[in-house]
Amino acid sequence: MEKNFKMVAKTFYGFEDILAAELRMLGASNISAGVRSVSFEGDTGFMYKANLSLRTALRILKPLFSFKVRHEKELYQKIYAFDWEAIFGPDQTLAVSATLKSEKFTHSLYIAQRVKDAIVDKFRDHSGKRPSVDKHSPDIQIHIHIHENQCHLSLDSSGDSLHRRGYRTITNIAPINEVLAAGLLLLSGWKGQCDFLDPMCGSGTILIEAAQIACNIPANLNRKHFAFQNWRDYDRGLFEIILKSSLSKTRDFPFEIKGYDKAPSAVSKALQNIENANLSEFISVERKDFFTTAKQGEHHLHLLFNPPYGERLRVEPSILYKKIGDTLKKHYPGSDAWFITSNLEAIKFVGLRPSRKIKVFNAKLESRLVQYKMYSGSKKAKYNKEQ
């Protein structure tokens, strides 16, 4: 039996605990949450499964080796000494990235260049051939991290960031990141336990991620490629077993997932992306203005949405957020409403007291995921009185 090895999953700030929970559910061992990362252990099959299934991971790194380094010459020598031909061949392309937290090593681009030089020189000296550099779509991606005098080299097993699920071919302005959408859904407690609505759905990302969670569909099922498939030790048969096993764990979803958007172009794009994800039977999208809608039926409803901002915002934030609060209060009793906003001042215009505020980042924008529990009947009266 193959021994387990350490890996590191990268993620967004605030998602460390939910990523650790995902890893625990998948069967990882020795899980430890860091800052924007979670370390864990598993075998090669688990590395394949992590790339295929994790919703809140951006990439999975496989550490190669670590060593102490005192100066640039020593860095070059130790990188050169490694058996790179066991991992890939001279006919493949590579890229190197570096992150540094050191007084001796301060120029990340230069360090990445020196690491690349050592690898390329090793191939040329041994075989007379050298791999080429491809910064956009390399076969092999190598990460170097130097903290003071400790150097760590890792292979990126994912390639393109794992937020590139493969289903989103057309988008609106500033579409929400797929990993961010999945993380917000998991933070909101969404498990597919009731009807779901995104009333400002844009190109449909939140809807698709919600459906995948509800049906337990692997997050990256629609991706065409992972970087580990370029490695010399890639086991195609093992990957196919992992894929088949993951698909056998999907489940039925007896509720409805709906999206609204008032822009015809957004509705069209959402429907196309939903079709790309093979989820048309689970999701419906209608052209509607949320502020003219009301909750349908008496069943509990889970809402999560990303209100427009910046280029997408055509009204004053105070007016927009007041309308959100008024619509929820008047027309959506018996609902659990969540939305993300980077306009921290505008939250007060909602006119409702948030049940929760969770700090997250939307790209580089510090944001809040806020929750409003909209009660019905006597609970609604009690809730409104508390306001």
Account of the 3D structure:
The strands form two sheets. An eight-stranded mixed beta sheet has the order 2-3-1-4-8-7-5-6. The protein is an alpha/beta fold. The chain has ten helices and 15 strands. The protein folds into two domains: 5-156, 2-Layer Sandwich (VC0802-like); 178-218 and 250-386, Vaccinia Virus protein VP39 (Rossmann fold, 3-Layer(aba) Sandwich), CATH 3.40.50.150. Helix 5 crosses helix 6. The radius of gyration is 24 Å and the shape is elongated. Strand 5 (93-101), helix 4 and strand 6 (132-133) form a beta-alpha-beta unit.
Helix-strand category = alpha/beta
Order of helices and strands: EHEEHEHEHEEEHEHHEHEEHEEEH
Principal-axis shape equals elongated
Q: What is the number of helical segments per DSSP (H or I, 4+ residues)?
A: 10
List its salient traits:
eight-stranded mixed sheet; 387 residues; 15 strands; Rossmann fold; 2 domains; alpha/beta; seven-stranded mixed sheet; VC0802-like; disordered C terminus
Give a brief description.
With 387 residues, this protein is of the alpha/beta class. Helix content is 32%, strand content 25%.
